[in-house]
Amino acid sequence: xxxxxxxxxxxxxxxxxxxxxxxxxxxxxxxxxxxxxxxxxxxxxxxxxxxxxxxxxxxxxxxxxxxxxxxxxxxxxxxxxxxxxxxxxxxxxxxxxxxxxxxxxxxxxxxxxxxxxxxxxxxxxxxxxxxxxxxxxxxxxxxxxxxxxxxxxxxxxxxxxxxxxxxxxxxxxxxxxxxxxxxxxxxxx
Length: 189
Fold this sequence. Notes:
Blueprint: E1 9-10, E2 13-14, H1 15-27, E3 35-36, E4 39-44, E5 47-52, E6 55-57, E7 60-62, E8 68-72, H2 87-109, E9 116-125, H3 127-130, E10 141-151, H4 156-169, H5 171-177
Antiparallel strand pairs: 1-2, 3-6, 4-5, 5-8, 6-7, 9-10
Helix pairs in contact: 2-4
């Protein structure tokens, strides 16, 4: 008599499903190909509204979730009206979620239980580049500093190893740390 496979969770991650997914991808690497999408519409001034809904992954289109909307704006000192975080703040938010998720999932796969993780992100940006006032000032962050506080029954060295693992496996971290090709086109009417 066959019994149902026992589900194991660590850090609220279904480790059984994680390892099953890994095996499926080993058997068919095409399952690992994903395309994520976002749209954006200018709302006036520095205000934009972005939307995330569907994506492609695991060999199929997935539009099962409700659309999520993001208000994007600038603070008044940067000619906005504070209707939402600015784009470079969203970049920090995306980085924070990806590093943390990578750390938690890989820790779970290794059976490491984490009680809590807190992190802080701070980036230096000189708007002279954005405003076109200097050819030598980069248009974008010049540096991002990240600090983590991890509560777990681990030595400091083991926590450092978790942090290194998060950096190694975070798609957002690696998209920022290593140049990636970007293609921008104008849709013709």
